[in-house]
Write a structure and sequence with these properties.
The protein is an alpha+beta fold and 537 residues long. It folds into 2 domains: 241 residues, Beta-galactosidase, Chain A, domain 5; 151 residues, no CATH class. 35% of the residues lie in helices and 21% in strands. It contains 12 helices and 19 strands. The chain has a 9-stranded antiparallel sheet with strand order 8-9-10-11-19-16-15-13-14, with no helix packed on it. The protein has a 6-stranded mixed sheet with strand order 1-7-6-12-18-17, with no helix packed on it. Strands 2-3-4-5 form a 4-stranded antiparallel sheet, with no helix packed on it. Strand 8 and strand 9 form a beta hairpin. Helix 4 packs across helix 8, helix 5 runs antiparallel to helix 8 and helix 9 packs parallel to helix 11. The radius of gyration is 31 Å and the shape is elongated. The two termini are 37 Å apart.
Length: 537
């Protein structure tokens, strides 16, 4: 076994160990069966994005009780996109079911957008108060008047996922919009979904982003916010304040790895209006707000390329009406686009491999004369028109495209719930046809990643002339397959099809490649003498 092969095996082993340790070290805590209690201190005059050190603040008064005979009631507002259910306890959003995605963004038994009234010496939490209710087909109004306070809140359902809140208050200096319950986990793979949970706040044209794990390390932040938002893997909740912005806002790290928020409004007019977006993480829809919401869509460093891929995939879907077929056609188009580059790369790699016997002869002949060895090697490359660096350029050109494609297919909400064949019921989830392994974090085992690995091996066997280099031919594809086990099946489908097309390309290329070395190279100039003649001199 050669030293290069031994080094490669050791390298693969080290990478595998690192991946295992990483998964064990950063595995999130399991979610509790019952919803966790909400930190009520988050309802009181929040002044920072992150949890501040304890300071003297007015204690919240108990919820107002106007009439003990009034019990909790619900009001439903809906359109073609959403079904919002409100509770009269504090006048809050109890359920936000997105009809197209069949999911609820409000955690079970909790509520969003309840209100805390801030007076000069107290904070009055309305979340436990049963408020009188008036409703119409597109709006619901809650009101309270007691102890020198007057408060009225109206929710109005707009088009698609827009919810408008109008508040009229007297007797209170400010009020808090409470989102400390956070967004619900919506995906089957809870661990993966929680890794995408982030809090966003935009101030002075700059968007701040915090994940749960770095909220405690973040610095305090006390300026007003243009808007605040919460993001999961596929969904987004945002609060857009009145023209003057939020007086302050705060992110709340919950114990189950989720994130909540609270934001303070200081009324400057009789009626203040806040707009809520509770909907899917769709780039074009979020961009239409012109507030920077689209920054919540993770498209990586190759964002322009990712946007082009996103546009093309949507176009293909409109033509074929199936996301699996659209991905296959996209793979064919990508192979056609990169065919000139990959053909050059494959040809150069093949020629370099076929030249290895001649290169070994030169190394053996000039082992004690490095300078002459280098000259003769370059002369050999020139005679056979081989550029050792030409195989790297196509790979560098394709890298941004492949990374952008990975970013798109990994977080593209339209793949969520998209069916392809009988066992692929959701292209946003891994292929689990054969279940899960009982170790290493229970990775999924499916047919697509196995076919992808087999196609990698077949392609390497076609292009490798050095049969001793079994590590690169077999171990590397197996390693890639293991990495892809938990990737979305839409991404697995793309790579499998791309590999199949690469195999066809390699078979076609081999027809003329086998006889290439047998041809006598053309002399380009009198100076270009073969190595054998140079030796006689």
């Amino acid at each position: 076994m050669s030293r290069d092969t031994i080094r490669m095996i050791i390298g693969f082993g080290v990478i595998v160990v690192i991946l295992i340790v990483w998964q064990l070290a950063f595995r999130p805590k399991p979610r509790p069966q019952q919803p966790l209690g909400v930190d009520t201190s988050a309802r009181v005059a929040p002044d920072t994005l992150v949890k501040p050190e304890p300071v003297d603040k007015p204690e919240p008064k108990p919820a107002l009780v106007l009439d003990t005979s009034v019990t909790e009631t619900s009001t439903v507002l809906e359109n073609d996109f959403v079904r919002y259910e409100f509770t009269n306890l504090g006048g809050a959003l109890k359920s936000a079911r997105l009809k197209r995605y069949d999911t609820d963004l409000v955690p079970q038994d909790l509520a969003l957008f309840s209100t805390v009234l801030l007076t000069a010496d107290s904070a009055i939490d309305l979340s436990g108060t049963a408020l009188p209710t008036r409703s119409t087909r597109r709006s619901v109004t809650y009101s309270v008047a007691a102890e020198g306070l007057s408060f009225t809140k109206t929710f109005v359902l707009e088009e698609d996922y827009i919810l408008r809140q109008e508040v009229e208050v007297s007797g209170a200096e400010r009020y808090v919009i409470d989102g400390s319950s956070g967004m619900a986990v919506t995906e089957q793979n809870t661990k993966d979904d929680l890794t995408h949970f982030h809090f966003y706040a935009r101030t002075e044209g700059k968007t701040h982003r915090f994940a749960t794990k770095n909220l405690k390390e973040a610095k305090s932040f006390g300026t007003a916010a243009d808007w605040v938002g919460l993001k999961s893997k596929y969904f987004f909740v945002a609060a857009i304040p009145p023209e003057q912005g939020f007086d302050s806002c705060r992110a709340i790290a919950l114990e189950d790895q989720r994130i909540g928020f609270s934001a303070v409004v200081k009324p400057e007019t009789r009626v203040t209006e806040t707009v809520f977006y509770v909907g899917p993480l769709e780039y074009d829809r979020l961009r239409s707000f012109r507030l920077g919401f689209e920054e919540a869509v993770s498209l990586g460093f190759a964002k322009p390329v990712a946007l082009g891929i996103l546009w093309l995939l949507k176009l293909l879907y409109r033509v074929f009406r199936n996301w699996g077929v659209a991905i296959i056609i996209f793979a064919v188009l990508m192979k056609a686009v990169f065919f000139p580059l990959t053909r050059t790369q494959t040809k150069q790699m093949r020629q370099m491999q076929l030249l290895q016997p001649k290169l070994k002869e030169l190394k053996k002949k000039y082992k004690n004369d490095p300078q002459t060895l280098n000259q003769e090697t370059m002369q050999l490359y020139k005679l056979y028109k081989v550029n050792p660096l030409s195989g790297c350029l196509p790979m560098l050109v394709q890298l941004p495209v492949f990374w952008a494609l990975y970013s798109v297919l990994r977080t593209f909400i339209d793949l969520r719930g998209a069916r392809f064949v009988f066992w692929l019921k959701d292209l946003s989830q891994p292929d689990t046809l054969f279940g899960h392994l009982p170790f290493f974090g229970n990775p999924a085992i499916g047919l697509l990643p196995i076919l992808m690995g087999v196609s990698f091996i077949a392609q390497n066997m076609l292009t490798q002339t050095d049969k001793k280099n079994w590590a690169l031919t077999i171990i590397f594809p197996i390693f890639i397959t293991v990495i892809f086990l938990n990737f979305p099946s839409g991404l697995q489908l793309y790579w499998f099809m791309y590999n199949v097309l690469s195999i066809v390309e390699s078979i076609i290329g081999l027809r003329g490649g086998r006889s290439w070395l047998k041809k006598k190279p053309k002399k380009e100039s009198p100076k270009a003498t073969p190595p054998a003649k140079a030796q006689k001199k």
